[in-house]
Amino acid sequence: MKSIFQIFTILFFIQISLISCKTFNNVNLEDTIPVHETFTIDSKKLNEKRVINIWYPNNYKSSKDSLTVVYMPDGGIAEDFPHVANTLEKLIKEKKIQDVILVGIENIQRRKDLTPLTEVEEDKKVAPIVGGASVFRSFIKDELFPEIDKRYRTNKQKAIIGESLAGLFITETFLDDSNMFDIYIAIDPSLWWNNHYLVKKAKAKLLKLPSKPIKFWFAGSDATDINQYTNQLSKVLEDTKAPQLKWFYSDEPKENHATIYRATEEKSLIWSLSK
Questions:
Q1: What distance in Å separates the CA atoms of residue 28 and residue 86, rounded to the nearest whole number?
Q2: CA proximity to 178, closest of 196, 163, 158
Q3: Once rounded to an integer, what is the mean pLDDT over residues 109-114?
Q4: Residue 197 CB: number of other CB atoms within 10 A?
Q5: Could you write out the DSSP letters of every residue in 136-152?
């Protein structure tokens, strides 16, 4: 027969395991899955079928308004889509932001799709294939954008939100293909990638921004391999002073890499999408 001490020890580790499962990869099993639509797009760019999740406000079907679209990598139902959709619904009900449509792109090979090319050997070890960001970007621009515009009432304004490697992808898109979106939200972006190449080249890239208005909101947690580079990027943005760019850096030393998405998504969306 097990001792009382052994029983309590077993129960303690079971409880810890359950807590860990609930918060793995920003996914909380208690998140309410919002009413949404799902379709599959057969991508010639990626040579695979991709699952796309769509959320829109309750009044969308009774309205004739065309809406801004917020795109998100990590957009699966078992990923970040539920909590971002729920946050948007809350902020719209509170009249803190405009009505929007949310488009979640479900992952297949996340570390392939969201990473740029790299010359650092350690980077190449994070997944069997890395460096597919440019192809993934082409899929969004050339295949997903037209499909969303065909299926839903959209205006010309496009936004994108994501964290970690998705934040890296968003920052690269902001610097390399700025016309693609109007609003960029990069939460704790993995700017260490490729020996922080993006930060090193940021000033030169910022000088080539298009003349249209652009918003860029980004945040850094207490992760030392990230915040040193988000701080550096903030300094570059300050020094460059691009007149067409409205930007905000949210330094979040009390948040870690696992908590920062949920901790900052509401204020990032209000800053970016307020009426």
A1: 13
A2: 158
A3: 98
A4: 17
A5: HHHIIIIIIHHHHHHHS
